[in-house]
Every structure is written in structure tokens, then in C-alpha cells.
Specification:
310 residues, alpha+beta, globular
Length: 310
């Protein structure tokens, strides 16, 4: 789900309202309503949407729990459904993020976890067939305690506990998630490049060795990117295209796209006026992953097939 708000102007607001988005998953259209968390900042209640900070914090906690098994717990709830949780200190979280190149004060991390718990996502399936709906948060439960408030800025005595969303838990237990190079992902500077890398890694299952030379790549349109990534739409289409180009250059420099042939671009133009050039109304890119990323995708395909055969 495009659950993060990367528009800096919509990060916090005193007038709490919902943002609405639509996206497609496996040929099914969904409508998503995002309601911000209400947090206390210096005695004032503010609506805070999950943004870059929350994206990084969630990725870090999930990696700490599932890959490093820091405080990982699995147990059944009252209905007998398995839930996955993580226990950690804010100091552990800060050090983990700092190692990945992202540094936040302890208070910022604490608020980010709270936003992940309190922000609400109402998901509805569109169409005339079966209509499904769901309401949830990034974390389903959040608690904690501080052993020594005098060391609160260090976070080593600030214990926190979160329960993951049932969809995340289901994906972990059933191994339906797709592996991704976490270190490479977190080394990317912008949320758009992280989204592009994740999308490429998870969706381009037909990747093959030498694909860049054969012009076999993953297609993405500007329309899809703006609708489903959470990136703010620029006033001019050309500015959105320039932002995409900048992100693609970062993917190339970080070894995610092929260095010799990183991508192909096709500009879409509207009706040509009587004078001048036809206006640019969109763009489509074909991304060619590097050999290292192709190898990771192929390995992920093998692991997925092996799990289905078990």
C-alpha cells in the first residue's frame, strides 16, 4: 500500500483530515484512506502522517526482528491466531539506523513508532465483484517503559514493544514476502529510490542475466509512480520527470541499475498545438537492473519455488 506521505507540506497538520489514494495490486484496484496519528507536541495536538521517518523506522524494526532476531516473539492471540512482535530499546533502534546512514534523536524515534501505531489505513477493494475492506495501522500494538528517565536521551534504558500488522505477520509466516538486499536498500538517499528498488526487486520476476544487453527490463509509467509511490506530484509534469531521472541516476550510481545501460525513457506527448511543440504529458521508463540485482531476483525466484514445493 502507498501508506507513506512524502510530501513535506502534508507531514503534520492541526486540521486533521484524511488523504485518499488509489493503487493496483495483482490487477485489482484498491482505494486507500490515510488518517494521521494525533500526537502531543509541546502541549499541542497535531495530526502527523507517516512519512520518511516512519518508513525508515518500520524497515529497521522489521529487519531487527526478522533478520537479526532482536526481541522476536511469536505467540497466539485470544482467537488462536499467531502474532509476531519485537522487543528492543530505542538505543538499539538508533544504532541500527545510524549504521545504515540514517540518524534520528531518541525522541523522534519514539514519536515515529507512535505514529506507526496510531495512523489509520482504511483499505477497500474496488470493482463490481467481491468487495473487501480492512482498517489497520502499521503496528497493531505499542507499549514500553523507561527504567531511568535521567538517561532518556540515550535510549539504552527505554524499552519498547510492538506487534506487527496481521498482513506482515501472514507474509512472514507463509514466506510470501520477497527478499531484498537490506543494506543496499537503506543506503539509498531518497524515498523514491527506495520505492523504485523495492518495486523492481519484488515485481520484476522475469529478470534474466544479460537482460540489459537484450533490452529486457521492467516498465514503469510516471502515472503509476505518482499514484502508488506516495511521492508528491510536482506542478509541472517536466519537474516530476526530472525528479524521476534524478532517482534513476542514484540507482545507477549505487549499483542497482546497469551502469552501461541503466534505463530507456519514452516521453508521452499530448495533442500538438497550431504553434510550437506538443506538450509532455507523461513518460514511461524501462529499468535494466544490474547483474548483482538480477542474481538476487533469480535467487528469490528459486527460494519461492522451493518453499511452494515443501
Amino acid at each position: 500500500m502507498p501508506k507513506y506521505i512524502f510530501d513535506r507540506h502534508a507531514k503534520a497538520t492541526t486540521q486533521v483530515g484524511s488523504l485518499r489514494r488509489s493503487f493496483t495490486h495483482r490487477s485489482t484496484e484498491y482505494a486507500l484512506r490515510i488518517t494521521p496519528a494525533i500526537v502531543d507536541r509541546a502541549g499541542d495536538d497535531l495530526g502527523v502522517y507517516p512519512g520518511v521517518r516512519e518508513e525508515l523506522v518500520f524497515r529497521a524494526i522489521l529487519h531487527m526482528a526478522v533478520q537479526q532476531h532482536i526481541g522476536l516473539r511469536t505467540k497466539a492471540d485470544k482467537e488462536g491466531n499467531l502474532i509476531i512482535s519485537a522487543a528492543f530499546t530505542l538505543s538499539q533502534l538508533r544504532k541500527h539506523l545510524k549504521k545504515s546512514g540514517h540518524e534520528f534523536p531518541i525522541a523522534e524515534l519514539d514519536e515515529a513508532i507512535l505514529v506507526c501505531r496510531l495512523a489509520s489505513f482504511d483499505l477497500r477493494q474496488n470493482g463490481d465483484a467481491v468487495r473487501a475492506l480492512m482498517s489497520c495501522g502499521i503496528f497493531m500494538f505499542y507499549s514500553g517503559y523507561d527504567e531511568d528517565t535521567s538517561t532518556a536521551e540515550e535510549g539504552d534504558k527505554s524499552h519498547r514493544y510492538v506487534v506487527f500488522n496481521p498482513l506482515v505477520t501472514k507474509s512472514i509466516l507463509e514466506k510470501t514476502f520477497r527478499a531484498i538486499n537490506y543494506e543496499r536498500l537503506m543506503a539509498l538517499d531518497s524515498p523514491l529510490t527506495r520505492w523504485l528498488y523495492e518495486r523492481l526487486s519484488h515485481n520484476f520476476r522475469q529478470a534474466e542475466k544479460g537482460g540489459a544487453m537484450k533490452q529486457v527490463g521492467y516498465n514503469l509509467s510516471l502515472e503509476t509512480i505518482l499514484r502508488e509511490s506516495g511521492i508528491a506530484t510536482e506542478r509541472r509534469t517536466r519537474d516530476s520527470i526530472d525528479a524521476m531521472r534524478k532517482a534513476l541516476l542514484e540507482l545507477k550510481s549505487k549499483g542497482i541499475l546497469d551502469r552501461m545501460n541503466p534505463y530507456a525513457e519514452k516521453l508521452l506527448r499530448g495533442e500538438k498545438p497550431k504553434r510550437g511543440f506538443a506538450p509532455i504529458i507523461g513518460a514511461v521508463w524501462t529499468l535494466f537492473p544490474s547483474t548483482a540485482v538480477v542474481d538476487e531476483i533469480i535467487e528469490g525466484n528459486v527460494n519461492a519455488r522451493a518453499y511452494k514445493l515443501e
